[in-house]
Amino acid sequence: HIGVSIGGPLDVDRGIIYSPPNLPGWDAVPLKELLEAHFGLPVVVEHDGMAGALAEHRFGAGRGVKHLVFLTLGTGLGAGLILDGKPYRGASGAAGSVGHVRMAADGPVAWGKAGSWEAFSSGTGIGRLARWRYPEQFPEGVTAKDVAARAVEHGDPAAQAVLREAGEYLGKGLAMLVDILSPEMIVLGSLAVRLGDHLLGPALQVLAREAEPSALAAVRVVPSELGERIGDLAPIAGLLARLERECETYARSDSRLSVG
To answer: What b/e string do you get for 173-199 counting C-beta neighbours within 10 Å, with b at 16 or more?
Structure first.
Protein backbone atom coordinates (compact mmCIF):
# COMPACT_ATOMS: atom_id res chain seq x y z
CA HIS A 1 0.00 0.00 0.00
CA ILE A 2 0.97 3.64 -0.57
CA GLY A 3 -0.25 6.50 1.62
CA VAL A 4 -0.51 10.07 0.31
CA SER A 5 -1.16 13.27 2.28
CA ILE A 6 -2.17 16.30 0.20
CA GLY A 7 -4.05 19.57 0.54
CA GLY A 8 -7.74 19.76 -0.33
CA PRO A 9 -10.38 20.11 -1.43
CA LEU A 10 -10.44 16.47 -2.52
CA ASP A 11 -12.59 13.38 -2.71
CA VAL A 12 -10.83 11.17 -0.17
CA ASP A 13 -12.44 7.88 -1.16
CA ARG A 14 -11.86 8.30 -4.90
CA GLY A 15 -8.57 10.13 -4.46
CA ILE A 16 -9.49 13.01 -6.78
CA ILE A 17 -7.91 16.45 -6.20
CA TYR A 18 -10.14 19.47 -6.85
CA SER A 19 -8.18 22.70 -7.36
CA PRO A 20 -6.28 23.19 -4.07
CA PRO A 21 -5.38 26.87 -3.63
CA ASN A 22 -1.67 26.08 -3.46
CA LEU A 23 -1.64 23.59 -6.36
CA PRO A 24 -2.83 25.65 -9.34
CA GLY A 25 -3.87 23.56 -12.30
CA TRP A 26 -4.72 20.47 -10.24
CA ASP A 27 -8.33 20.46 -11.43
CA ALA A 28 -10.10 17.13 -10.87
CA VAL A 29 -6.80 15.21 -10.94
CA PRO A 30 -7.43 11.46 -10.31
CA LEU A 31 -4.33 11.11 -8.12
CA LYS A 32 -5.23 7.72 -6.63
CA GLU A 33 -5.88 6.23 -10.08
CA LEU A 34 -2.69 7.68 -11.56
CA LEU A 35 -0.48 6.44 -8.73
CA GLU A 36 -2.04 2.98 -8.68
CA ALA A 37 -1.47 2.67 -12.44
CA HIS A 38 2.15 3.80 -12.08
CA PHE A 39 3.17 1.73 -9.04
CA GLY A 40 0.79 -1.21 -9.30
CA LEU A 41 -0.12 -0.91 -5.61
CA PRO A 42 -3.26 0.18 -3.71
CA VAL A 43 -3.14 3.90 -2.84
CA VAL A 44 -4.86 5.76 0.01
CA VAL A 45 -5.17 9.54 -0.43
CA GLU A 46 -5.86 11.61 2.68
CA HIS A 47 -6.36 15.32 3.29
CA ASP A 48 -3.19 16.74 4.83
CA GLY A 49 -5.09 18.29 7.73
CA MET A 50 -6.77 15.02 8.62
CA ALA A 51 -3.57 13.05 8.03
CA GLY A 52 -1.76 15.41 10.41
CA ALA A 53 -4.49 15.01 13.01
CA LEU A 54 -4.30 11.23 12.72
CA ALA A 55 -0.50 11.32 13.02
CA GLU A 56 -0.52 13.49 16.14
CA HIS A 57 -3.33 11.38 17.59
CA ARG A 58 -1.47 8.12 17.00
CA PHE A 59 2.20 9.08 17.37
CA GLY A 60 2.45 12.59 18.80
CA ALA A 61 0.99 15.17 21.18
CA GLY A 62 -2.59 13.92 20.85
CA ARG A 63 -2.13 10.37 22.12
CA GLY A 64 -5.13 9.50 24.30
CA VAL A 65 -7.03 12.71 23.41
CA LYS A 66 -10.69 12.29 22.41
CA HIS A 67 -11.32 15.76 20.96
CA LEU A 68 -8.43 17.02 18.84
CA VAL A 69 -7.96 19.76 16.24
CA PHE A 70 -4.82 19.83 14.12
CA LEU A 71 -3.91 22.93 12.08
CA THR A 72 -1.48 22.40 9.22
CA LEU A 73 0.02 25.92 9.47
CA GLY A 74 2.32 25.28 6.54
CA THR A 75 2.09 26.65 3.04
CA GLY A 76 -1.66 26.72 3.57
CA LEU A 77 -3.98 26.55 6.57
CA GLY A 78 -6.29 23.59 6.97
CA ALA A 79 -7.60 21.56 9.87
CA GLY A 80 -8.08 17.94 10.74
CA LEU A 81 -10.81 17.18 13.29
CA ILE A 82 -10.97 14.18 15.57
CA LEU A 83 -14.15 14.42 17.64
CA ASP A 84 -15.17 11.86 20.25
CA GLY A 85 -12.17 9.81 19.17
CA LYS A 86 -13.21 9.58 15.51
CA PRO A 87 -12.21 11.52 12.38
CA TYR A 88 -14.88 14.07 11.49
CA ARG A 89 -15.35 14.96 7.82
CA GLY A 90 -18.82 16.53 7.70
CA ALA A 91 -21.61 16.08 5.17
CA SER A 92 -19.49 17.02 2.14
CA GLY A 93 -16.26 15.45 3.37
CA ALA A 94 -14.66 18.90 3.39
CA ALA A 95 -14.85 19.69 7.11
CA GLY A 96 -11.71 21.47 8.24
CA SER A 97 -11.41 24.06 5.46
CA VAL A 98 -10.75 26.71 8.09
CA GLY A 99 -8.33 28.71 5.95
CA HIS A 100 -11.25 29.70 3.73
CA VAL A 101 -13.03 31.52 6.58
CA ARG A 102 -13.04 35.30 6.17
CA MET A 103 -11.37 36.92 9.17
CA ALA A 104 -11.47 40.56 8.03
CA ALA A 105 -13.36 42.69 5.51
CA ASP A 106 -10.10 43.42 3.72
CA GLY A 107 -6.61 41.99 3.68
CA PRO A 108 -4.20 39.91 1.64
CA VAL A 109 -5.70 37.29 -0.65
CA ALA A 110 -5.49 33.52 -0.28
CA TRP A 111 -7.84 30.79 -1.42
CA GLY A 112 -9.48 33.40 -3.68
CA LYS A 113 -10.70 35.50 -0.76
CA ALA A 114 -9.32 38.76 0.60
CA GLY A 115 -9.02 38.66 4.38
CA SER A 116 -9.24 34.87 4.69
CA TRP A 117 -7.61 33.16 7.65
CA GLU A 118 -5.11 31.48 5.33
CA ALA A 119 -4.17 34.92 3.97
CA PHE A 120 -3.16 36.11 7.42
CA SER A 121 -1.69 33.13 9.23
CA SER A 122 -0.33 30.55 6.78
CA GLY A 123 3.15 30.38 5.31
CA THR A 124 1.90 31.76 2.02
CA GLY A 125 -0.24 34.28 3.89
CA ILE A 126 2.59 35.75 5.96
CA GLY A 127 4.50 36.68 2.82
CA ARG A 128 1.37 38.19 1.28
CA LEU A 129 0.52 40.01 4.51
CA ALA A 130 3.99 41.57 4.59
CA ARG A 131 3.63 42.77 1.01
CA TRP A 132 0.04 43.98 1.56
CA ARG A 133 0.77 45.82 4.80
CA TYR A 134 4.22 47.24 3.89
CA PRO A 135 4.49 47.31 0.08
CA GLU A 136 7.49 49.66 0.13
CA GLN A 137 9.50 47.46 2.51
CA PHE A 138 8.86 43.98 1.14
CA PRO A 139 9.41 42.99 -2.50
CA GLU A 140 7.15 40.90 -4.71
CA GLY A 141 7.53 37.22 -3.89
CA VAL A 142 8.63 37.73 -0.28
CA THR A 143 8.18 34.52 1.71
CA ALA A 144 7.38 33.71 5.31
CA LYS A 145 10.97 32.51 5.66
CA ASP A 146 12.20 35.92 4.50
CA VAL A 147 9.91 37.72 6.94
CA ALA A 148 10.97 35.45 9.81
CA ALA A 149 14.66 35.99 9.07
CA ARG A 150 14.22 39.75 9.07
CA ALA A 151 12.18 39.65 12.27
CA VAL A 152 14.17 37.13 14.30
CA GLU A 153 17.74 37.54 13.07
CA HIS A 154 17.79 41.24 12.24
CA GLY A 155 15.14 42.71 14.54
CA ASP A 156 13.34 44.42 11.66
CA PRO A 157 10.32 46.28 13.13
CA ALA A 158 8.10 45.84 10.05
CA ALA A 159 8.80 42.11 9.91
CA GLN A 160 8.14 41.79 13.64
CA ALA A 161 4.85 43.62 13.17
CA VAL A 162 3.86 41.21 10.40
CA LEU A 163 4.53 38.16 12.59
CA ARG A 164 2.66 39.77 15.45
CA GLU A 165 -0.38 40.45 13.24
CA ALA A 166 -0.26 36.93 11.80
CA GLY A 167 -0.16 35.59 15.35
CA GLU A 168 -3.06 37.78 16.45
CA TYR A 169 -5.21 36.50 13.60
CA LEU A 170 -4.14 32.97 14.45
CA GLY A 171 -5.41 33.62 18.00
CA LYS A 172 -8.75 34.91 16.71
CA GLY A 173 -9.21 31.75 14.67
CA LEU A 174 -8.18 29.55 17.59
CA ALA A 175 -10.76 31.26 19.79
CA MET A 176 -13.42 30.54 17.18
CA LEU A 177 -12.48 26.85 17.10
CA VAL A 178 -12.41 26.66 20.90
CA ASP A 179 -15.82 28.31 21.21
CA ILE A 180 -17.47 26.11 18.55
CA LEU A 181 -15.82 22.72 19.17
CA SER A 182 -14.44 22.88 22.73
CA PRO A 183 -11.59 20.48 21.95
CA GLU A 184 -9.20 19.06 24.52
CA MET A 185 -6.21 19.94 22.38
CA ILE A 186 -5.28 22.01 19.35
CA VAL A 187 -2.01 20.96 17.75
CA LEU A 188 -0.29 23.52 15.54
CA GLY A 189 1.86 22.48 12.60
CA SER A 190 5.00 23.72 10.88
CA LEU A 191 4.98 27.48 11.47
CA ALA A 192 4.33 27.11 15.19
CA VAL A 193 7.29 24.74 15.46
CA ARG A 194 9.63 26.98 13.46
CA LEU A 195 8.55 30.40 14.76
CA GLY A 196 7.71 29.50 18.36
CA ASP A 197 6.75 32.45 20.54
CA HIS A 198 7.13 34.93 17.67
CA LEU A 199 3.82 33.51 16.39
CA LEU A 200 2.40 31.73 19.43
CA GLY A 201 2.95 34.58 21.89
CA PRO A 202 0.42 36.98 20.31
CA ALA A 203 -1.83 34.08 19.32
CA LEU A 204 -2.19 32.81 22.88
CA GLN A 205 -2.74 36.32 24.21
CA VAL A 206 -5.65 36.86 21.81
CA LEU A 207 -7.01 33.37 22.50
CA ALA A 208 -7.05 34.03 26.24
CA ARG A 209 -8.90 37.30 25.67
CA GLU A 210 -11.41 36.06 23.10
CA ALA A 211 -12.39 32.47 23.97
CA GLU A 212 -15.26 31.43 26.20
CA PRO A 213 -13.70 30.82 29.63
CA SER A 214 -14.92 27.29 30.36
CA ALA A 215 -13.94 26.04 26.89
CA LEU A 216 -10.60 27.82 27.19
CA ALA A 217 -9.89 26.14 30.53
CA ALA A 218 -10.44 22.70 28.96
CA VAL A 219 -8.08 23.10 25.98
CA ARG A 220 -4.31 22.86 25.52
CA VAL A 221 -2.73 24.54 22.50
CA VAL A 222 0.63 23.00 21.61
CA PRO A 223 3.08 22.89 18.71
CA SER A 224 3.31 19.61 16.83
CA GLU A 225 5.23 17.03 18.85
CA LEU A 226 6.23 15.34 15.60
CA GLY A 227 7.79 18.52 14.23
CA GLU A 228 9.44 18.11 10.84
CA ARG A 229 8.73 14.35 10.92
CA ILE A 230 5.01 14.91 10.43
CA GLY A 231 5.43 15.05 6.66
CA ASP A 232 6.63 11.43 6.77
CA LEU A 233 4.26 10.16 9.44
CA ALA A 234 1.02 11.80 8.27
CA PRO A 235 0.62 9.63 5.13
CA ILE A 236 1.40 6.53 7.21
CA ALA A 237 -1.22 7.50 9.81
CA GLY A 238 -3.80 8.11 7.09
CA LEU A 239 -3.03 4.73 5.51
CA LEU A 240 -3.20 2.88 8.84
CA ALA A 241 -6.54 4.51 9.72
CA ARG A 242 -8.02 3.47 6.37
CA LEU A 243 -6.77 -0.12 6.70
CA GLU A 244 -8.13 -0.36 10.25
CA ARG A 245 -11.52 0.93 9.09
CA GLU A 246 -11.62 -1.61 6.27
CA CYS A 247 -10.70 -4.43 8.67
CA GLU A 248 -13.47 -3.39 11.07
CA THR A 249 -16.00 -3.28 8.21
CA TYR A 250 -14.91 -6.72 7.05
CA ALA A 251 -15.10 -8.11 10.59
CA ARG A 252 -18.66 -6.79 11.06
CA SER A 253 -19.70 -8.21 7.69
CA ASP A 254 -18.11 -11.56 8.46
CA SER A 255 -19.82 -11.65 11.85
CA ARG A 256 -23.24 -11.04 10.28
CA LEU A 257 -22.62 -13.78 7.72
CA SER A 258 -21.60 -16.21 10.48
CA VAL A 259 -24.70 -15.44 12.53
CA GLY A 260 -26.94 -15.80 9.48
So the answer is: bbbbbbeebbbbbbbbbbbbbbbeebb
Kindly report, residue by residue over 134-148, the tens digit of the pLDDT. Answer: 999 999 999 999 999
pTM metric for this prediction: 0.91
d(CA 28, CA 18): 5
CA atoms within 13 A on the CB side of 17: 26
Rounded distance between C-alpha atoms, residue 216 and residue 179, angstroms:
8
Using N-to-C axis directions, what is the helix angle for 157-181 and 123-133, rounded to 10°? 130
Residue 248, pLDDT score: 78
| CA dist list (Å): 18 to 31, 62, 99, 134, 161 | 10, 29, 16, 33, 35
**Rg of the Cα atoms in the chain:** 19
Count of residues for the chain?
A: 260
What is the number of other CB atoms lying within 10 angstroms of the CB of residue 155? 9
